[in-house]
């Protein structure tokens, strides 16, 4: 129905420059026209606004950067939208910016990488009067944490594979777009290590991109991941007159897309076959955790989206006749606060006690292999599971370059093109004026520093950091 109309609505148009796939973004040709080939695309444009709570927390003070909250991939795509997409692809120089976390490439990178991570106010969230201490606290925690992290990275070959995999995903998405006659430059911007988002944005400017789709490589939205990366991006765009005028669409989450759900179900179905009795294996979804306060006090939709995501994958598996039991747990907690429960390590012990014998681990919050799949799941959790009485252990690989997944991401990009809007909004400036009260700022700084140092140097706090970070 809608999808047939969509296919019929697009005509192959001339690509004036042809296309090749040079490694450098600036060399990449970007002017071309679109032809939508896929009959099964059901293009969806959810122009939803960010929920108030999340928006507040991330200082989303503009009415921009708020399109394409999710591109669901299962709504109708009318002729007007199709026509708009066609004209954007015809007239614009399209860029796609993949946002990711980044990871240390060598063991020497580990401490500075951790510093960048803990210096992020979306990761260590200090009350306003203490925020000027962010750097000092980040330094302290990164130094304390580095030895443990280094052990982990040493165990997976001395560094994170994230940059290489993300670059490969960028190339694959670019090729998938090209196969749909959309020429685009695909850029990679990391939050905590090279290539930093700032570098990618410089390149986007140099390349004179005129329409940008931002695709965070996190299926579910969290303040600590997509939220943080988008905040940085928003700051960079707001400061630059050229970039402020570039229409941008941000795909905030995409766990609900059919292409993603089906690709995950494919991987799980395939991996279950390694068990002598595939139906007996429990499917063990292990998601990266976040502190409970993100969800309960700050409205982070991460947990809700994660649960919906698991429901969608399980529904799909059931529809395929895969009746296995499943469970969701959260891994990788850091620091002296409560994180989302149940914790992966505790659940593994519990399942062992209950007599579960076969377990298939499914990493579900991230789409590349990284330290938490290769070291934490494959080594630490596997060992714990076997010690706890689980006899058969399997692990689903991360989606990586899975073709159906990459194609679906390319579809998500195409679907979001018409919703792009320029970020320029002069009213933004006045909304920041609450920080202009110099006197109250100085008072807060003064008392804040005294309190913070007293807290930081208290034996209780030191112990808490030591116990949970080493
Ligand atoms: C959806 C994914 C992720 C969420 C949510 C997330 C939140 C989060 N993470 C930390 C602290 C650390 N994360 C680390 C590594 C790391 N985190 C993610 C993903 C999410 N993090 C990935 C993909 C990686 C690995 C990158 C790689 O190099 O392969 C680390 C460093 C590793 C370690 O020492 O364990 C820390 C520290 C917090 C505090 C947080 C939420 C507040
Ligand atoms: Fe993390």
TrEMBL record:
Pathway stated in the Swiss-Prot or TrEMBL entry: Porphyrin-containing compound metabolism; protoheme biosynthesis; protoheme from protoporphyrin-IX: step 1/1
CDD domains given in the database record: Ferrochelatase_C, Ferrochelatase_N
BP terms from Gene Ontology: heme biosynthetic process; response to oxidative stress
Highest taxon of the lineage: Eukaryota
EC number: 4.98.1.1
Membrane association type: Peripheral membrane protein
Keyword Protease: no
Annotated localization: Plastid, Chloroplast membrane; Plastid, Chloroplast thylakoid membrane
Keyword Cell wall biogenesis/degradation found: no
Family from the record: Belongs to the ferrochelatase family.
HAMAP family: Ferrochelatase
Protein name in the entry: Ferrochelatase
Species for this entry: Arabis alpina
